[in-house]
Amino acid sequence: MKVLMLNGSPHQAGCTNRALEEVAKTLAESGVESEVFWVGARPVGGCTACHACDKLGRCAFGEKDGVNEFLAKAADADGFVFGAPVHYGRAGASLLGFMDRVFYANGRAGQPNVFAYKPAAAVTSARRAGTTSALADIEKYFTISQMPIVSSRYWNMVHGQSAEQVEQDEEGLWTMRQLGRNMAWLLRCVEAGRAAGVGLPEAEPGAWTNFVR
Fold first, then answer.
1. Over the stretch 11-39, which tens digit does the pLDDT of each residue have?
2. Structural element, H or E, at residue 186
């Protein structure tokens, strides 16, 4: 089993990464492999709704900033953790722009949906406030993609202005460790269900509606 984690901070070894490291360490202790994918230090733009992915099956601009590389890695992952710093009371724009394009391009042009039914968790870091609203920013992607959300013993957040300061947030790191244990437990539950013959939920075709007539 493998968990793919996205570090959405422009600082590769900053607070967000320190939180993800604690999750990764606990996953390893539980026998689950993990990988941290960094969005990079350069600003990442959001989706332009150009619909090129409808034909390509990937983001038309995603070769330059890792979006398509992450999407390819996601196909082999069993679970996900998306981490972001808080900027102006919300999740950092680079992470949200990255996720906009990854999730929009997912499953297009006959490609498989690489996120549906796979457990996911959000992690945020802040100097002081804005963490809970940032968590909500990230978790919206999960709920529209049929991904079970993994929780911890508290909201998945750490506090500090540097990785060294996060070390002092004992409760935050405790929360990250419990998140790792909960993720490993849910992945094993999914694996056991699959082995017992429990299939995926039936998908209803449904209908698209528009509020403007």
1. 999 999 999 999 999 999 999 999 999 99
2. helix 170-195
Joined together, the tokens standing for residue 205 give 């075709």
All residue ranges of the chain with pLDDT < 50 are: none
CB 159 within 8 A of CB 169: yes
DSSP state of 74: H
Neighbours of 166 (CB within 10 A): 23
| Exposure string over 73-99, b if 16+ CB within 10 A, otherwise e | bbeebbbbbbbbbbbeebbbbbbbbbb
Beta pairing class for 33-38 and 79-87:
unpaired
Concatenated DSSP letters of 139-182: HHHHHTTT-PBP--SS-SEEE-SSHHHHTT-HHHHHHHHHHHHH
Other residues' Cβ atoms within 10 Å of the Cβ of residue 177: 18
- The span from the first CA to the last CA of the chain, in angstroms, equals 47
Q: What is the largest CA-CA distance in the chain?
A: 55
Average per-residue pLDDT for the chain? 96
Using only the alpha carbons of the chain, give its radius of gyration: 17
Please give the Cα distance from 161 to 132 (Å, whole number).
17
State pTM to two decimals: 0.95
pLDDT digits 0-9 by tens, 189-209: 999 999 999 999 998 988 989
In whole angstroms, give the CA distance from residue 18 to residue 148: 24
Provide the 3-class DSSP secondary structure of residue 84.
Answer: strand
